[in-house]
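Example S7 (structure tokens).
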């Protein structure tokens, strides 16, 4: 199926196209810290790529050798990827927040011959995960320790002649191995070819308005399939300008600088953006202002200006289900969000809604994507030319993931209406049975709970309990409020009322016994969430299951757990 991608749409061919046709156009705007930025033209981008590709070949990187990238998003992350592909290698991106044991597992499992080390917040913690003797190259924004102990990118490109010609790779050749973030177990290496990547991009462009004049802010990990496909390979497809975020502290300024025309985020961050707005303008006041004919337009513009989304032509949410009420809230302030659906295994290409339409669903398939439901389990099955070739060195897992006729088992349950619109109803493995023998789907309940302004993340649990309960993480502002007795009492009353309202909408067997506020944040470091902010349900159960029944015996609506 990968052969369906035309040769001139493949990554390297697109890179040479911009080198020839737009050498002086700005490709990247990279923050350097302290408000300083550096622009990179396509001429500079491809020149540095050619020099690093020549160096990789001189270091013995041969066709098909795996080369890894461990870094936050920067211009040199993408330059490294281009250089790996141009040199004949296979890129292996690593999340910049991984634990050292996971880093080691991926590097050893992939057989990586070299590692690029870039901008990182926790290199000292990660460094023990790099196998002894593995050659490394330090990006310009890498930690000082890495730059002092590894050959430096700038030194290498300064002394290395650029690789000549226009070496290309066929559509069916392996381009990258993307290790899944994994809500359960160790990550698996998803194999994508040049053809699957190109098909995903070209098909995505039929629904997402990207062109040479577009601007995107790259801030979600490039090691994640959506950011990789949309930003890196989307840019190769259309030539738009990519801005990078510097840090969490500068995110607002980074957004203001980029003024993205297309903006992708994940549900947890859409919630945080909403909370930031409501922190400055409480919902009651916002509701009042939005009812005033002239004032409402001014208010909407001011909010979008503040968010840096005043020039956004398409906003997209993905990677996890987004509450329908949150989509409606954004629509009220003038930002209609499209909800997309896809997996690492199909290069994030499956379904997407028209912005503001079919709320509560993930829309219809992209052209060339086939979708059906398993008649027994209701599992969503998809198939397209963007589907992976398999899991690296895991033939049994690969076989288990595909049906006999080549459809990918997504692990998600859903329904499809007469128009072909898909609604996600939960995970096949997330359903749990209470002690009363009733099945509970946690995701729809979590969508309701997270709409409370103090709540940042939720995990509904309750296997073998009489009634389910919900673990809750509050946002930082609310946790600060809870530091005083009066603030905690106010929060507790608000959460208890929200619990009652949610329970009124649920069937009796779904109604929650209590909310447990865990005062320890859920982070990648403590292994409770993935790098894309999905809650790891198995880890939550491992951490808290022994306390579920004692909590329920307390007969309190809201329980505070210090951990």
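Recovered sequence:
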């Amino acid at each position: 199926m990968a052969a369906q991608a035309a040769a001139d749409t493949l990554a390297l061919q697109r890179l040479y196209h911009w080198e020839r046709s737009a050498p002086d156009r700005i490709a990247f705007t990279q923050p350097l810290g302290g408000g300083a930025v550096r622009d990179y033209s396509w001429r500079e981008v491809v020149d540095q790529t050619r020099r690093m590709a020549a160096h990789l070949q001189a270091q013995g990187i041969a066709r098909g050798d795996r080369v890894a990238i461990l870094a936050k998003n920067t211009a040199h992350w993408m330059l490294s990827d281009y250089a790996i592909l141009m040199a004949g290698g296979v890129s292996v991106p690593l999340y910049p927040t991984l634990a050292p044991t996971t880093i080691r597992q991926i590097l050893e499992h992939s057989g990586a011959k070299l590692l690029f080390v870039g901008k990182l917040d926790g290199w000292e913690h990660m460094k023990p995960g790099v196998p002894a003797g593995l050659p490394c190259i330090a990006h310009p924004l890498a930690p000082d320790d890495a730059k002092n102990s590894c050959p430096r990118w700038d030194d290498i490109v300064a002394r290395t002649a650029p690789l000549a010609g226009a070496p290309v790779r066929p559509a069916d050749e392996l381009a990258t191995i993307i290790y899944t973030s994994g809500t359960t177990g160790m990550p698996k290496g998803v194999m994508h070819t040049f053809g699957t990547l190109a098909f995903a991009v070209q098909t995505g462009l039929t629904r997402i308005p990207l062109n040479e004049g577009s601007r995107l802010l790259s801030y979600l990990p490039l090691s994640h399939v959506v950011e990789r496909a949309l930003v890196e390979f989307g840019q190769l497809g259309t030539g738009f300008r990519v801005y990078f975020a510097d840090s969490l502290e500068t995110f607002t300024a980074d957004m203001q600088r980029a003024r993205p025309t297309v903006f992708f985020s994940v549900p947890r961050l859409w919630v945080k953006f909403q909370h930031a707005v409501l922190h400055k303008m409480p919902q009651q006041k916002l509701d009042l202002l939005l009812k005033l004919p002239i004032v409402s337009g001014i208010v909407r513009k001011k909010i979008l200006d503040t968010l840096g989304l005043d020039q956004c032509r398409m906003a997209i949410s993905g990677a996890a289900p987004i509450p329908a009420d949150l989509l409606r809230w954004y629509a009220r302030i003038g930002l209609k969000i499209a909800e997309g659906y896809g997996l690492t295994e199909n290069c994030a290409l499956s379904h997407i809604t028209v912005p503001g339409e079919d709320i509560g669903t993930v829309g219809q398939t992209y052209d060339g994507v086939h979708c059906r439901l398993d008649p027994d389990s209701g599992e969503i099955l998809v198939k397209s030319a963007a589907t992976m070739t398999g899991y690296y060195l895991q033939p049994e897992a690969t076989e288990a993931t595909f049906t006999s006729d080549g459809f990918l088992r997504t692990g998600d349950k859903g329904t499809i209406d007469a128009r072909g619109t898909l609604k996600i109803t939960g995970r096949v493995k997330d359903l749990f049975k209470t002690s009363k023998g009733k099945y509970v789907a946690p995701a729809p309940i979590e969508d309701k709970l997270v709409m409370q302004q103090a709540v940042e993340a939720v995990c509904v649990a309750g296997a073998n309990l009489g009634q389910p309960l919900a673990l809750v993480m509050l946002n930082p502002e609310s946790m600060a409020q809870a530091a005083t007795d009066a603030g905690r009492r106010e929060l507790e009353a608000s959460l208890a009322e929200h619990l009652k309202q949610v329970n009124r909408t649920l069937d009796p067997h779904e109604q929650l016994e209590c909310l447990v506020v865990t005062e320890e944040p859920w982070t990648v470091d403590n292994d409770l969430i993935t790098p894309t902010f999905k809650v790891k349900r198995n880890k939550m159960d491992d951490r808290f299951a022994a306390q579920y029944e004692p909590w329920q015996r307390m007969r309190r609506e809201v329980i505070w757990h210090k951990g």
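Notes on this example. The chain has three domains: 2-244, 262-310+312-427, 433-561.
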